[in-house]
Amino acid sequence: MKKSLVAIAVLSAFSGIASAQSSVSIYGIVDAGIVNERGGVADSVTKLTSGVASASRLGFRGTEDLGGGLSANFVLESGVKIDTGESDVAGSIFNRQAFVGLKNGFGAVTLGRQYTPLYLTVSTVADPFGAGYAGSAKNLFPTAGNNTRTSNTILYTSPNVSGFSGELAYGLGEQAGSNSAGRQFGAAFAYANGPLNVRLAYNNRNSDITAAAGVAAVPAVAASSKDIGRNTLLAANYNFGVAKAFLAYGIDKGTNSAALPNTTNPFGGVKPTASTDSRDFLVGVAVPFGASTILASYIRKDDKTSLNQDADQWALGYTYALSTRTSLYSSYARIKNKNGAGYTVGNNAEVGTGDKAFNLGVRHSF
């Protein structure tokens, strides 16, 4: 009798394993548009560009039910240029996202290359343009480089409890001779319930760089020792039905807290300097009517350093949904730079070459 019970238990265990459900899906975005940029030393630039509204990509995501409320998941996502068919980062494969992790009722832990809580706050809550089109908040908000996504990252995402949720991210710098150089820490606390969506994010970035092999480090730990870059951003949107209102305020302090998206000298003269003490303000609106949506925003970059390189951006956009997955779009934005500031009007995939830009394109998701 006991042997029979043991046999039944073993068979039941194997049956449970066999019945575990797994799935893998392919997804992506194909986006291309005509872009005209003006106002920089490059004069008038007209081009066909990939990823104006949303960066074009091809991704794979999968999940496996491990039983007992536990599941495994992964994402592999590659950026592509629709205008040329190339990878959007030469020599890379899954440069956009690449992570694997586990999830249960207590939340999810994922390991790999992932978005920062700061960038998710800008793109999903603060910006009516969703960090795309000419009106992208990325033109003035601090999302350049590692502020968008980080490699070697451990991310914990909490479950949603009555609308409340949170994230904790730690990116290892992985530089020889130092456990702190290049590391990055981020966190977010969010509340989303009904028409209200609020999110508070923090980003802490160590910009130290350790010495190259065979080069004496000065000081002993880092060849280049800088202060910590810190970003704090509070963003909210509220859906009134006839329109959705957006509001955001950010504080940026320290090296690389507000790196310039365009690191060249786009307007000639004295090369602009990235601010190490600035404030960001955004107010915007999205007005849907039928298949159409009008987007508008105003962004202010207030540079608190002695250079006082402020900037203001006005933006207007229009989208028309041909279906749930395909849409047409048009947008225009203009930046007014002050005291030699060097901010340019870009879009989701490019940083731009001038202080004015117009977009016209199509976006399809699958």
TrEMBL record:
Pfam families: Porin_4. InterPro entries: Gram-neg_bact_OMP, Gram_neg_porin_domain, Porin_dom_sf, Porin_Gram-ve, Porin_Neis. It is found in: Cell outer membrane. Keywords: Cell outer membrane, Ion transport, Membrane, Porin, Signal, Transmembrane, Transmembrane beta strand, Transport. Residues 1-20 form the signal peptide. Residues 7-339 form the Porin domain. CDD domains: gram_neg_porins. It is a multi-pass membrane protein. PANTHER family: MAJOR OUTER MEMBRANE PROTEIN P.IA, PROTEIN YDDL-RELATED. Homotrimer. This is Porin.
